[in-house]
Design a protein that fits this description.
heterodimer, A: 114 residues, mainly beta, four-stranded antiparallel beta sheet, B: 178 residues, three-stranded mixed beta sheet, 13 strands
């Protein structure tokens, strides 16, 4: 096994991170994670062939991934044409108040999961 | 995909694409499972969304003449929650026959507990009180704060005849309203 970094190019990480799914030669899912700033570190076997599926919004990129013992970084280019229409991006305001008092909450975090 | 919206003084902003999202919260002192709504649909043209969260602590304000747990209770003192600037929120609470006025559903936390602001808006008419914004924080689900409402000071009122200098009025009543 060796640690390799999957790099996804051609996307806007500020809007959305792509999801990376890697299948082994039995077509079993061995990785199913979102990238961080378009990068994902995974452990794979050298000299093995995998199938990698990259999902970004409604678009899917499927490629063959051959892990070389000499290469640690693997790049997949989504292409800028896949950046979603900017009209779908909104600067959204979230207001959080106390249910019983309507007092604005001084500090906290709202977590959104798509 | 996870997105965190940092809330400061009740508001946070984020660039977000349209879509459906499940919502959770991380607010110290509050019951994070009480966030409402638990899902939103972000749509074009609507860029503001409102949420509420609740706490379940109980803060008792014990109002007595000397501000001690054994002091004479003051009945009818009123209080209201505020922010740090004194802006009032929620309903007024009133001290009962034991001198207790109770804020339910207030936040508490063992560490970094949120500050709870409140102020007294009235007493029973016979006692002095401070209307300044007070604050406390709770590290347990219940807490009691002792509040002093001392008896009004004794004042001397003089009533003399307007046409005969310094001639005291034998008997009568003056009524003062505020």
């Amino acid at each position: 096994m060796k640690k390799v970094i999957i790099n996804i190019l051609g996307i806007n990480y500020n809007i959305c991170e792509p999801k990376v799914i890697i299948y082994d030669n039995n077509n079993c899912v061995i990785v199913n994670k979102y990238t961080c700033n378009g990068k994902l570190s995974v452990c794979l076997k050298s000299k093995c062939i995998y199938k990698i599926k990259i999902c970004y919004f409604n678009n899917v990129l499927v490629r063959r991934l051959i892990v070389s013992p000499y290469i640690n970084n693997y790049y997949f280019n989504f292409g800028y044409s896949y950046i979603p229409n900017s009209s779908n991006i909104n600067n959204v305001t979230f207001n959080l108040k106390d249910f019983y008092y309507s007092l604005p909450i001084e500090k906290g975090i709202i977590n959104l999961n798509e | 995909m996870n997105k965190n919206v940092v809330i400061t003084n009740g508001t946070g902003n984020i660039d977000l694409i349209n879509g459906s999202y499940t919502v959770s919260a991380s607010v110290n002192g509050y019951d994070n499972t009480s966030i409402l709504p638990t899902s939103i649909n972000v749509v074009e043209g609507t860029n503001e969304y409102n949420f509420t969260i609740a706490a379940d602590g109980v803060l008792s304000l014990h109002v007595t003449e000397d501000g001690t747990s054994s002091g004479t209770p003051v009945v009818g003192a009123t209080f209201v929650r505020t922010d740090s600037n004194g802006v009032e929120y929620g309903s007024v609470i009133t001290s009962d026959s034991n001198g207790d006025a109770v804020f339910n559903n207030v936040p508490y936390a063992t560490t970094d507990a949120p500050i709870i602001y409140y102020k007294q808006t009235a007493s029973d008419g016979n006692h002095e009180f401070s209307s300044a914004v007070a604050n406390t924080s709770m590290t347990a689900s219940t807490a009691t704060v002792e509040v002093a409402n001392p008896l009004g000071a004794s004042r001397t009122i003089n009533l003399t005849d307007a046409n005969y200098a310094n001639l005291p009025i034998d008997s009568g009543t003056l009524t003062l309203n505020n």
